[in-house]
Amino acid sequence: MVVAVAVLLALAGCEDEATVCPASAAVVLPNVVVQLERWPAADSAVLQCAPACVPGLAGDDRTELTVPVVDGVAGFDVFASPATVAVTVLAADGTELTRLETELDWARVGGSEECGGPVVATVDVPG
Questions:
Q1: What is the strand order of the sheet 119-124 is part of?
Q2: How far apart are CA 74 and CA 66, in angstroms?
Q3: pLDDT, position 9
């Protein structure tokens, strides 16, 4: 009893409260969104990351991801938050339409600074 009272008195002066973060059943991946509205012939986009877009995921250290373009947008789920990437835009026949190397500006779109949450980087490919 004396120990419990001593602990309570010692903690009573503490003003910092521990942050409790909610548990999440879903894995939230960083997302790179490539805007390609000015490229109507775009069929797919290739994202190149260094050192890897998906580092350490079951031995998957790919440095390149390819996704289709849907309604002028290509979305990439990555397991890293690379500082820079290269985006290559391809036509349906595989012809390279354009290539852009750019720095990413990651923005939090949910969660909090203390607990984390989803982040997105948007790349607008000029036409």
A1: 73-77, 31-35, 119-124, 107-108
A2: 9
A3: 44
- Does some domain include residue 6? no
1 assigned to some structural domain? no
101 within domain boundaries: yes
What tokens does 98 get?
Answer: 């354009």
The torsion angle over the Cα atoms of residues 68, 74, 79 and 83, rounded to 10 degrees, is 130
> Residues 78-82: what's their mean pLDDT?
86
CA triple 109-104-30, angle to 5 deg: 45
Query: Do residues 45 and 89 lie in contact, with contact meaning Cβ atoms separated by under 8 Å?
Result: yes
* CA–CA dist 56, 61 (Å, integer): 6
In a domain, 19, yes or no: no
Residue range(s) defining the domain that contains residue 85: 24-124
Query: pLDDT of 43-62, one tens digit each?
Result: 999 999 987 887 656 666 78
